[in-house]
Amino acid sequence: MLAPILGGTSATASSAAGIPLWRSPPGGGGPSGAELIGATGAVTNIVMPTIEMVAPSRPNGAAVLVAAGGGYKRIEMASEARPAASWLAAHGITAFILRYRLPGEGWNAGPLAPLQDAQRALRMIQANADTWRIDPSRLGVLGFSSGGHLMGLAATRSGFASYPPADAIDAFSGRPQDAALIYPIITLQPPYDHTSSRRVLIGSRPSAAESAEWSVETHVRAKCPPIFLVQAVDDPISNPQNTIIMADACRAANIPVELHRLASGGHGFGMGSPNTSTGAWPSWYSGWLRTRGMLV
Q1: Which architecture, in CATH terms, is 38-291?
Q2: Domain edges within the chain
Q3: pLDDT tens digit string along 25-75?
Q4: CA 29 – CA 262 distance, rounded (Å)
């Protein structure tokens, strides 16, 4: 068995603070001090991006990188990331919670910073697959809202070199095997661009080229991984057309896609609530994971 290839630090997989992704994030900059946790459990002031492993009692070898939303202004750890990680671990899947850099917190990489962190996290998980008892061919992603935008970019732009190689970890692939995007922001193009994600990433008056470049659907190609989509038709934050746009782009590229539209639920429902329409989607997700070989 190979020795673990972590991030150039002494952190371990069981560290409560997570495993640092970099010795120094590409481009430098960023905030200082301690991470801040809001009243709802959302985090800001991400000084060092990390992955936090949530291991099941009986790992089945599959792994999923989880990215919560928050409009790229915060990361909804308590309402999205942690419930999702717990659900995955209960199903035998090793979950990795991604603390990604928030572009508005002074990072010189700007809008590239979160994508750099997502690509680096996927490579780090693969680099440590033996140590963490993971099959690298069974590594997926799960993203919510702006985290769905980020995981969508990670899935569709895995061949894009968002940063220069830093060490041996970057010899590994940044491509996930599949992607589940829950009430995601997909397009940053008009008329569906009235979101915090668009404003934070590319400003209040982006060019048409910038809007297309940072939209997920414009990067769907024949070699993209299969996609699972969930959204409520009454979503007030991410226009419900977002998942339709993504499903149409996948079908045009012959990418397997499964789209579920909820009759109600709004936005930000995380893993759903029992006895509501949002409570159904995790069972659909588990069925899809089973077809993908992630559940055995």
Answers
A1: 3-Layer(aba) Sandwich (3.40)
A2: 38-291
A3: 999 999 999 999 999 999 999 999 999 999 999 999 999 999 999 999 999
A4: 41
